[in-house]
Amino acid sequence: MTQARNHRAYWRANLRLLALLLLIWFFVSFGCGILWVDTLNQIRIPGTGFPLGFWFAQQGSIWVFVVLIFVYVWRMNRLDHQFGVSEE
Q1: What is the DSSP string of 42-62?
Q2: Which 3 state secondary structure label does DSSP give 26?
Q3: How much is the pTM?
Q4: How far apart are CA 58 and CA 52, in angstroms?
């Protein structure tokens, strides 16, 4: 019984982490790249002159996605150790 409960808690934590990371990515890609692009375009990136909204739409959401992949790997390794299912 405790193994099944431990398994459910592990997957609940995994899904919670996935939902949070996808919400962050949605906020950055859809919010900053589409919804608030006009407001963000009033800010220029120093050294390049590109509007911030344009940058988020073209590159920012991709960079954030790559960072979120590394955050997911780091957090999942910690979760694996916490629940005793690590491969190490």
Answers
A1: TSBPTTT--BHHHHIIIIIHH
A2: helix
A3: 0.82
A4: 10
What kind and span of H or E run contains 18? helix 2-26
Q: Where are the beta strands (DSSP E) in 1-88?
A: none
Average pLDDT of the segment spanning 9-32:
94
61-83 vs 2-26: helix crossing angle, rounded to 10: 170
Tally the C-alpha atoms within 13 A of residue 69's C-alpha that lie toward its C-beta. 5
Q: How far apart are CA 77 and CA 70, in angstroms?
A: 11
For 27-45, how does the pLDDT look when each residue is reduced to its tens digit (9 = 90+)?
998 998 889 989 999 999 8
